[in-house]
Write a structure and sequence with these properties.
501 residues, alpha+beta, 19% strand, globular, ArgE/DapE_CS, Bact_exopeptidase_dim_dom, hydrolase, signal
C-alpha cells in the first residue's frame, strides 16, 4: 500500500513557537524588522500568470510523474525520469531556449546571444526525488528559472541579453539510487570521478549499466565531455525551498544563503552470528541487531552532547557553542539479513549522515564515531566496518552574488507587498547542487519559505505567492546580471518599489 499523502500536521503551532525561540542559531543576519508581519503579497503587472499560475501548474504536473504508485519517486534515469525529461525539454523550448540532454542525463536549456563573449549565467536544480517525496524539492528551482526566462521572452527582453543564460535540470542530486550524491552537477562541474561508472545500486546494476540502458555512451570520455570550462561560466544561481522552518517563523517569503553545511555519509556494517531465535541462549549470542541499536544511540549522544564523548586528542572542549550549533546526525536506513522474525540476524548495516557548518567539527565527529563503533563492537564480540560513502566540505556562497540576490529578493517582495524588510540571510543544513557547482564557479542561492520546514515528504508545501515572489526575484536578478556588464541592482529605499517589469 502506498503511504498516505494526507498526513495531519500535528502540533504545528507549538512547533513554530519552539522554532521562534531557537531560530537565532540558524540565522547569520536577520534585522529585527524582518519578523514583522508583511502585507499580503499581490500586485498587478508582475507576470502573475507565468511566475505564479503557470509555475504552480507545472510543479503539480511534474509532481505526478513518478515511478511509485500513489507516491512520488523519481530517481536517476528511472522510467519516470525519462518521461519527466521530455516534459522539461518542452517547457524550456516554450521559454525560447535551445535544449539538449548531456551524457549524464542532465537537461540543458540555453539562450545564446549573438556574438556574445561574456561568461554564462547558469541556473537550475535537480529533477530527481527521494522516495515518497514532495513536489517542490528541486523542481521549484528548475521551473522558476524556466518561468523567469519565459517572462523575458514575452516582454522582448530575452533577445536583449548580452550574456548566455542557461537552465540545467540535474539528473541526480539526492543520491537515492546509488548512494552517492550530485551525479549530475558534479559531472557539469568536472569533479565526477571515472570510478563512478562502476558504482552499483541495491540490485547490482551499475551507473554504467543504467546509462547504456538509456542509450548514453557510458564511457569515461563521454562523462568528461559533460564538464564546463570554468572560464566560460560566470556564476551559478539556485532557487530552492528552504527545507527548514526559519523563514516561516520570520513570516518572510524569501531568504538568501550565506553558505551550505559540510556533509559526510557513512555506511556501518555489523556482522554477528546468525541463529535460531528460540535455541541460542542470550549470553551466547553475537547479535548484530543489538550492537547496531547501541551504535545508533551512541551517535545520537555524540551529536547532542559532543563534548561529553570526545576524547582530549579529539579537541574535547575546544569547539564553541556557535560552531557546534549546526551539527546534526541521522541514521536514515537500517537493513538486516536475513530479516526474519524467528532468526537472530547475521548482519545489520545502516547509513549515517553527519552535517555541520564547521568542517573541523564534522571531521572530528566522524573520527570519534568511527572509534566508538570499534569499541562498542569489541564489547559485544561482533565485527564492524565503517565505509565512507560521501564527503563534502562546507561551501560558502559568493559574497557579491549573495548581496545581489538579496537586493533582487527585496525588490520582488517590495513590488508585491508595497514594502519589504531586509531579506534574511541564512545558512543551509541541507546539501544542494550549488555545493558541486561551487567547484566550477561562484554560486548563490535563494531560499523560499515552506510550511513547517517540512521536506522530503509529500507534506511539502510552498505558498503560491511565495513561488511568485521567487520567480520575480529571479527576473530582477537575471535582467541585471545578463544585461549589464556589472551584476548590480540599484540600492532600494526602505519602502520603495524597485522592480522594473
Amino acid at each position: 500500500m502506498a503511504p498516505s499523502s494526507s498526513r495531519p500536521m500535528r502540533h504545528h503551532h507549538l512547533y513554530l513557537l519552539l522554532i521562534v525561540v531557537s531560530v537565532s542559531v540558524l540565522l547569520t543576519s536577520v534585522p529585527a524588522s524582518a519578523a514583522d508581519d508583511l502585507p499580503e503579497l499581490g500586485g498587478d503587472g508582475l507576470h502573475k500568470e507565468i511566475l505564479r499560475d503557470e509555475t504552480v501548474l507545472r510543479l503539480k504536473e511534474l509532481g505526478k510523474i513518478s515511478d511509485g504508485e500513489g507516491y512520488l519517486e523519481r530517481t536517476f534515469l528511472s522510467p519516470a525520469s525519462i518521461r519527466a525529461t521530455a516534459v522539461i525539454v518542452s517547457w524550456m523550448k516554450d521559454a525560447g531556449l535551445t535544449t539538449w540532454v548531456d551524457q549524464m542525463g542532465n537537461i540543458h536549456g540555453r539562450f545564446e546571444p549573438a556574438n556574445s563573449t561574456q561568461e554564462a549565467l547558469l541556473m537550475g536544480s535537480h529533477m530527481d526525488t527521494v522516495i515518497d517525496a514532495g513536489m517542490y524539492d528541486g523542481s521549484l528551482g528548475i521551473i522558476c528559472a524556466i518561468s523567469a526566462l519565459k517572462v523575458l521572452k514575452v516582454t522582448g527582453k530575452l533577445q536583449r541579453l548580452t550574456r548566455p543564460v542557461e537552465v540545467i535540470a540535474f539528473s541526480d542530486e539526492e543520491g537515492v539510487r546509488f548512494q552517492t550524491t550530485f551525479l549530475g552537477s558534479a559531472a557539469v562541474a568536472g569533479t565526477l570521478p571515472e570510478s563512478i561508472l562502476q558504482v552499483s545500486d541495491k540490485s547490482g546494476t551499475t551507473v554504467q549499466d543504467v546509462l547504456k540502458m538509456n542509450s548514453f555512451e557510458a564511457t569515461a570520455a563521454a562523462i568528461s565531455q559533460v564538464s564546463y570550462n570554468p572560464e566560460s561560466v560566470g556564476s551559478y544561481v539556485e532557487i530552492h525551498m528552504e527545507q527548514g522552518p526559519v523563514l516561516e517563523a520570520l513570516r518572510y517569503p524569501l531568504g538568501v544563503v550565506k553558505g551550505i553545511a559540510g556533509q559526510t555519509r557513512l555506511k556501518v556494517i555489523v556482522d554477528g552470528s546468525q541463529g535460531h531465535a528460540g535455541t541460542v541462549p542470550m549470553k551466547l549470542r553475537r547479535d548484530p541487531m543489538v550492537a547496531a541499536a547501541e551504535l545508533v544511540v551512541t551517535l545520537e549522544r555524540l551529536c547532542k552532547e559532543p563534548n561529553k564523548l570526545l576524547t582530549y586528542d579529539e579537541e574535547c572542549g575546544c569547539f564553541t557553542e556557535e560552531s557546534l550549533a549546526g551539527l546534526v546526525c541521522t541514521v536514515g536506513e537500517l537493513l538486516t539479513w536475513p530479516s526474519a522474525s524467528n532468526v537472530i540476524p547475521g548482519q545489520v548495516n545502516f547509513t549515517v549522515d553527519i552535517r555541520a557548518m564547521d568542517d573541523k567539527v564534522r571531521e572530528t565527529i566522524v573520527t570519534s564515531f568511527s572509534r566508538l563503533v570499534l569499541q562498542r563492537c569489541d564489547d559485544r564480540l561482533v565485527d564492524c566496518k565503517v565505509e565512507h560513502k560521501h564527503s563534502a566540505p562546507a561551501t560558502p556562497s559568493d559574497p557579491e552574488l549573495t548581496s545581489q540576490l538579496k537586493r533582487a529578493a527585496r525588490s520582488a517582495v517590495s513590488a508585491m507587498a508595497g514594502r519589504a524588510a531586509e531579506t534574511p540571510v541564512l545558512m543551509s543544513g541541507a546539501g544542494h547542487d550549488a555545493m558541486a557547482m561551487a567547484k566550477l564557479t561562484k554560486m548563490g542561492m535563494v531560499f523560499v519559505r515552506c510550511r513547517g520546514g517540512v521536506s522530503h515528504s509529500p507534506e511539502e508545501s510552498v505558498m503560491d505567492d511565495d513561488v511568485w515572489a521567487a520567480g520575480l526575484a529571479l527576473v530582477n536578478f537575471i535582467e541585471q546580471a545578463a544585461v549589464s556588464s556589472e551584476l548590480l541592482l540599484p540600492e532600494a529605499e526602505p519602502d520603495a518599489v524597485v522592480a522594473d517589469l
